[in-house]
Prior knowledge:
Layout: H1 10-25, H2 34-42, H3 72-131, H4 133-136, H5 139-153, H6 160-179, E1 183-184, H7 187-195, H8 197-200, H9 206-238, H10 245-255, H11 257-260, H12 270-280, H13 282-286, H14 288-306, H15 311-315, H16 318-331, H17 333-344, E2 348-349, H18 352-362, H19 385-399, H20 402-412, H21 462-482, H22 507-510, H23 521-532, H24 540-561
Antiparallel strand pairs: 1-2
Helix pairs in contact: 3-5, 3-9, 3-10, 3-16, 3-19, 5-6, 6-9, 6-24, 7-24, 9-14, 9-21, 9-23, 10-12, 12-20, 14-19, 14-21
Family: Belongs to the glypican family.
Membrane topology: Lipid-anchor; GPI-anchor
Function: Cell surface proteoglycan.
Amino acid sequence: MPRRRGCPPPLLCALAALSLPLLLAAEPRAKSCSEVRRLYAAKGFSQSEAPSHEISGDHLKVCSQGYTCCSQEMEEKYSQQSKHDFRNAVVELSNHLQNMFSSRYKKFDEFFKELLENAEKSLNDMFVRTYGRLYMQNSELFKDLFVELKRYYVGGNVNLEEMLNEFWARLLERMFRLVNPQYHFTDEYLECVSKYTEQLKPFGDVPRKLKLQVTRAFVAARTFAQGLAVARDVVSKVSVVNPTPQGTRALLKMMYCPHCRGLVSVKPCYNYCFNVMRGCLANQGDLDAEWNIFMDSMLLVAERLEGPFNIESVMDPIDVKISDAIMNMQENSMQVSQKVFQGCGQPKTLAQGRTARSVSEGGFTARFRPYNPEERPTTAAGTSLDRLVTDVKEKLKQAKKFWSSLPGNICNDEKMSVGTVNENECWNGSAKSRYDFAVTGNGLASQVNNPEVEVDITKPDMVIRRQIMALRVMTNKLKNAYSGNDVDFIDISEESSGEESGSGCELQQCSPEFEFNATEVTGSSNKSDKTVNTSAAATRSGLSQAALLLSLLFLAMQRQWR
Length: 562
């Protein structure tokens, strides 16, 4: 029987049926996922969750839904891993900066505190040797001076100018009694004496010069140390990053979606990574401008610490300066006493027996011996201010533009494995190919056109906004310190302290409370010079309130001493 035309022989049909499974096995969907499984297990995940060969990707929500090496569980865990990797990258880079500010703050703080301790000890040792029992009977006066200086440095509500004026007023009272032991002085009489302090200048020019030097040096030192602490705290708070859901999708797509395609050795394109990081760090980018202004202000105050506001050069010889003032008072005691007697009247003379006892018990039986300056400690905390400032200035310069550079630094991190060699052989978010999108700008507003991360530019991160305000407050304080102005200690945690940098009012115009709280370097100098040549009546125009206040303090303290 003849065969029908077109019907294949039975042998061919059998061969075709046998070869069909082989053809199907040769298709791409049968590609092995062994390397993906190995790397997945290396992350600490269960290898059983990873398929041995490619499967359909219909279950995937972010990565490509073609044939894939990722199960649904893998994509979910890769999503969490991408957030973890991103946070660690930010923290690792930020920790270096935070630790730098923390260590420098501790070093400066330790130095300043030890410098005060050394200065107090040096004065005490020198005055015991020089003035003996006379000093020891009045040592609480000098101890109180250092207590107030220390309290000011740690943030206490101390007005340096008023505190120093009170110190010299109390010293004048003690000295005036000692140089005139034959007289009895009432509280009212001593109050009158205090009114002539500026005119008589019983301690020479030491109080005026020391007031300027101490105020400028302590304002700069305290403000600079606080600035280091603020920088440390800002970095600590801002470096804690929680990516948005849109940011997490972009991170997963960049870091681990290539694994699902089996492209485990292909690295993300650099510009692609840059866009993802700028989108995820959009709010941190907004910190950069205020941060850079803050760093510049810190550098300016650092220069002051090296030069005219050097607290080490002020505190180290403070014992000698106070001794000079005491010697000046003794040498001019007769002239000072005569002028006081002319202005305040002749005091009552004590009985002869009481006068003799006063002299023998603590008056001047001889002139004060001149001080004998010996070698005193010129450093504290094992270093010097110059070395500390030189070191920290270099660190401050390196810290500028940290936040705008953070996305690029993360992409350059070896752990991120970003491709930079061949721009056509990198992962662009969908395939191993060139990345064609431009890099977006820095900051929240610039992310409106970010091709990789959907960012809501109408909802800024409030934590970062508060840190921006904290930087502005601190910058304003640094500017005042640079000019030599003493301002009240400001707690940066207070929301009311949020004026923009450079927008603060003039201290004397803000509130009457600041009238004697702000010490302008040139202003104070001119004011003191004019006071020397004015009469007691003229002092009422501008400083009468201060004189009255000091007189009341003087009277109250004098009664307390009695």
